[in-house]
Design brief:
Structural class: alpha+beta
Oligomer: single chain
Shape: elongated
Number of strands: 9
Order of helices and strands: HEHEEHEHHHEEEEEH
Distance between the termini: 27 Å
Strand content: 15-25%
Number of helices: 7
Helix content: 25-40%
Largest sheet: 5 strands, antiparallel
Radius of gyration: 20 Å
């Protein structure tokens, strides 16, 4: 994981390109609707402390995702990079939990001085290549992974999406929403309040002012909302469609209740 000193070291080294957290409060949603699902997609136990995922290339240019249990180290690295600061992410070998071939996320960067990113050869993979390499979802298709990525994008670009909504045209109240898929989502959200779902199904993060951004996922759907505003719904059954839910009388109380059960970043 550190810089190579010899040609042999270069072959074994991992050139780190980026890293992401895999915790109940923050995980790559492309992997699943909740934290246990995301862990299962990587063959990991859903420990409450979580993991860090380090994505890089070896000396031959092969893509690898290295799982470590030093969550704090990865969190510091991500925070430093987000601030435009350099940070040498070099985990101790004792913290490595697994080395998985491939990347679960699309990366537009590559390590300098090594071949172009490619999947490791079967001989280099754990279990002789019985486990297929991790790959990002196909952007030309629509399914659960693409639906969750769409919800991620709305969360990142909330203001831009909100500007496109005419409040007079959104559903007057969630309980009266005429869309069958939206009604089902609302019913399942109420079910989450009554019986808390697996960790990560409902997450709460900071928003402007005193509001919170809520993210909820379920079988076939994703919701992005602000506790002081409206909500957006994406459905597996409606490729590429983003359905707004107006405040009405029911949504504020529902969002407040969801925020109380949501997992929050430490």
């Amino acid at each position: 994981m550190t810089g190579p000193d010899t040609a042999e070291d270069t072959e074994d080294a991992l050139f780190v390109l980026t890293a992401v957290l895999l915790t109940p409060a923050k995980f790559p949603s492309v992997l699943g609707d909740d934290y246990p699902q995301a862990c299962a997609a990587l063959g990991l136990e859903p420990y409450a402390e979580g993991y860090g995922l380090v994505l890089g290339q070896d000396g031959a240019g092969a893509r690898w995702t290295v799982v470590i249990d030093d969550v704090s180290l990865v969190a510091v690295a991500i925070a430093s990079w987000d601030c435009g600061m350099e940070y040498d992410l070099s985990p101790d070998e004792r913290t490595i939990v697994a080395g998985l071939p491939g990347w679960p996320l699309m990366l537009a960067v590559s390590a300098p001085g090594v071949p172009e990113p490619h999947d490791p050869s079967p001989d280099d993979m754990p279990d002789g290549g019985n486990r297929p390499p991790l790959t990002p979802p196909d952007s030309d298709q629509w399914g659960a992974a693409q639906r969750r990525l769409g919800a991620d994008e709305i969360a990142l670009q909330w203001a831009a999406w909100r500007e496109q909504i005419d409040d007079a045209e959104t559903f007057a109240a969630p309980g009266a929403a005429p869309h069958a898929g939206v009604r089902r989502v609302i019913e399942e959200l109420h079910g989450y309040v009554e019986t808390p779902p697996p960790p990560g199904r409902v997450r709460s993060t900071f928003a402007s002012g005193e509001a919170r951004t809520l993210r909820a996922d379920g079988p076939g759907w994703s919701v992005i909302a602000r506790t002081d505003d409206i909500a957006f719904v994406l459905l597996d059954d409606e490729p590429g469609e983003v359905l707004p839910i107006g405040r009405g009388h029911e949504l504020p109380g529902l969002l407040e209740a969801l925020d109380k059960i949501a997992v929050r970043p430490a």
